[in-house]
Amino acid sequence: MTPRAGTMRLACMFSSILLFGAAGLLLFISLQDPTELAPRQLPGIKFSIRPQQPYNDLPPGSSQDGDLKAPTEKVPRDLSSRAPRGSRLLVPDRPQAQLNVGTRLRPRQRRRRLLIKKMPAATAIQANGSAGALARPAPWAPDGHWVTLHHSQQERKRVMQEACAKYRASSSRRAVTPRHVSRIFVEDRHRVLYCEVPKAGCSNWKRVLMVLAGLASATADIQHDTVHYGSALKRLDTFDRQGILHRLSTYTKMLFVREPFERLVSAFRDKFEHPNSYYHPVFGKAILARYRANASREALRTGSGVRFPEFVQYLLDVRRPVGMDIHWDHVSRLCSPCLIDYDFVGKFESMEDDANFFLSLIRAPRNLTFPRFKDRHSQEARTTAHIAHQYFTQLSALQRQRTYDFYYMDYLMFNYSKPFADLY
Fold it and tell me: Which of 183, 267, 308, 420 gives the lowest tally of CB atoms within 10 Å of its CB?
């Protein structure tokens, strides 16, 4: 064999070895899980103990996220209950900038729910010993009072969800329409959605939202007409469908409710026992004409002087001479709690605690607390259970029962006790 032939034979053998080696490597790679070859990454949410700043990356009116989750979809959410003492409420960092639009939604969607749904005991907040407004000291300080408030939220949501599952099972399958969110106000900086329930602290809540949005420096500076007749706060139904679903999926949604009989009496006292240029001519005149025998000409002309039993007759009449009003409509119709998965359910009866707890959870400015002043008729006592009871004693037992039936879903969903022993 010549040297040239030997050289060619060695070259062929070497090439064959290289080809077999390359084929074996490709076969090995194809059999591996690709995730094992990529660098290990943390789960989809990164946690930080840095103070969270208000969100300014989403301009009002924008709806930049592409693939929107359904607003009532349950999202996995958990926070370690073994957070070290001294840590702040754990809140996810913003997603990394290089992620595409579709992948940015999931961490954001979890972020807002983490605040309420699975908040660990270590994130509770210590209250000071003052007898005034419940202050919000360092939110990392554990305290049994704030743990109790967290457990109360869990219980309220459980009761509400069970009532919806039992009596409104079909609601969860319906599509959200602008009508369902027409009472919801939007605060984009802190990503808050607030469903307005009249006569349950709504005026002061809208003041709080205006301060959070940077539209005022203090709640006391905002007049009643600015709150109710201005256009500073946007309603959720003013956004396009994508903007509505994006906010329902990623913002913290909350509502505050009130004992239904007390709320009804509060509305009656406010609208019919004081001069009112709208409710007297629109509702009062119609009520007096239908339900008061031999009403005077003056009463029919002005609509003033409606009595509580007459007002309740109007409320219970299936052929009302004038339509329903938000001040005495059901919460279940105003806020659609069986369709929209609210993260926080507060109560008027525990307003100070619930409101300041909520403000702590969304990391509102430390000097912002819920206002204590009465918005209208400040010299008049607030409607209490005792006052409501006095008004309802003017009704027959049948009228009380029918009124309770009218608000039955509100009593059931928000776990209020029967206000009279003879109700069933």
Answer: 420
